[in-house]
Amino acid sequence: MFITFEGIEGCGKSTQAKKLKEFLEQKNYSVLLTREPGGSKLGTTLRKILLSMENQDITKETELFLYLADRSQHVHTIIKPALKENKVVISDRYIDSTVVYQGYGRDIDPNVIHLLNELATNKLCPDLTILLDLPVEIGLKRALARNLNNKTAREEGRFEAESLEFHTKIREGYLTWAALNKDRIVVINGENSPEQVFQEILLALKNRLEI
Ligand code: TYD
Asked: Which residue in 84, 103, 127, 135 could disulfide with 110, CB within 3.0 to 4.6 Å?
């Protein structure tokens, strides 16, 4: 079982992914919680390059290929081996982040990105994707508050530094893409309390996993 979490900055997906891991472990599932970028050994280096404030001049194509390189390595060295061991794999961001940020956000054809994703992952598609949706202003406020208190998050702020307009494009891109992939992507309102959001995630999971 492969589950991914998606959403704009500050939507609460990392908190929910952790909560889900703990819940499933209590139900005796063996769970791997991972993330992109940076889920593999090579990915740790790629993450630093991708999110550093020093790399503001990176071209959109360079950015795209670095995310795909990170993903390919992640799938082949971390995700697939864990799925083979029958683990539930939860990834904080995956293929849809690239379609939305590099596609809808940076104006590269989302269909081209979809094909490149297939190449990078050998067509490994999540069984379920949770999209936590909320207004951009609320997400960014949360992300900025987090960055003030956290040195690593501050240094990784290249995307948080993008304009409100960019993030609005991202939110809308996610909703458009989710509507095109209704069987896989479940949209949940991230404005609700963490407990309420979590209950809705469990509801979405119930059709797919014995919990
Ligand atoms: P991260 O610190 O993990 O942010 P968040 O907590 O919001 O997940 O940073 C990941 C950033 O990288 C985020 O701004 C989205 C961006 N991103 C892409 O642009 N394309 C991608 O394919 C992925 C995986 C992430």
From this structure: 103
